[in-house]
Design goal:
Layout lengths: L22 H15 L4 H8 L5 H8 L6 H11 L5 H25 L4 H36 L1
Helix pairs in contact: 1-3, 1-5, 5-6
């Protein structure tokens, strides 16, 4: 098993060898740390998460991709992290990725100054995060209703 020593490839690099930075990379590092702390191989974690291949886990641990919400919930159940650091990193990574996508789309469509683009991107991200809060509240309500019915 790779212990991230000098013989191991650098897991903080994305495809093409570019250094990954920012919150998604921090989330990936935390997922990797928790997996190794639990003594799980990529394949074993993939099975426990209900995935058919482990390549997606590699992308998540490198910060190339962010797990979708349902998979992240399963990650939490399997890895059982202490505290809420993983949840905070996940929320921040989703917000960061949304911010980058909005920023990129605005820059490609509208010839604005950098300050205008940044302001618009923040506005969209705030709205996305508010909607994510509504989705989480609805998921909790659905769970409570399902439990009450059962």
């Amino acid at each position: 098993m790779c212990r991230l020593d000098s013989r191991c490839h650098d897991r903080t690099r994305g495809r093409g060898g570019t250094k990954l930075e920012g919150v998604p990379a921090l989330l990936g590092q935390e997922l990797l740390r928790l997996r190794l702390q639990r003594g799980l191989s990529l394949r074993k974690l993939a099975r426990q998460l209900g995935m058919t291949a482990h390549s997606g886990i590699v992308d998540y641990e490198r910060g190339v991709r962010i797990p979708p919400p349902d998979l992240m919930s399963t990650y939490v159940q399997v890895l059982q992290p202490d505290g809420n650091r993983l949840a905070q990193l996940y929320e921040a990574a989703v917000a960061d990725r949304a911010h980058q996508r909005v920023l990129n789309s605005i820059q490609s469509e509208i010839p604005l100054g950098a300050a205008d683009v940044e302001w618009i991107a923040r506005l969209y991200v705030e709205q996305i995060m508010a909607l994510n809060g509504v989705v989480r509240a609805l998921e909790e309500l659905t769970s409570k209703l399902s439990a009450a019915i059962a």
